[in-house]
Amino acid sequence: MLKITDIEVLHLRVPAMDADCEWGEDAVIVKVHTDKGIVGVGEADSSPLVVQACIEAPQTNFYCNGLKRLLIGENALEIERLWNKMYWGSNYMGRRGAGIHAISAIDIALWDIAGQFYGVPVHTLLGGKYRDKIRCYGTFIPADKPEDNVAIVQGLKDQGFSSIKFGGGVMGDDPDTDYAIVKAVREAAGPEMEVQIDLASKWHTCGHSAMMAKRLEEFNLNWIEEPVLADSLISYEKLSRQVSQKIAGGESLTTRYEFQEFITKSNADIVQPDITRCGGITEMKKIYDIAQMNGTQLIPHGFSTGILLHASVHFLAACEQGTLMEFSQSSSPLFTSLVKNQLQFDNGFVAVSDAPGLGIELDEELIAKYRVN
Question: In which residues is Mg(2+) bound (predicted)?
Answer without folding.
Answer: 198, 225, 251
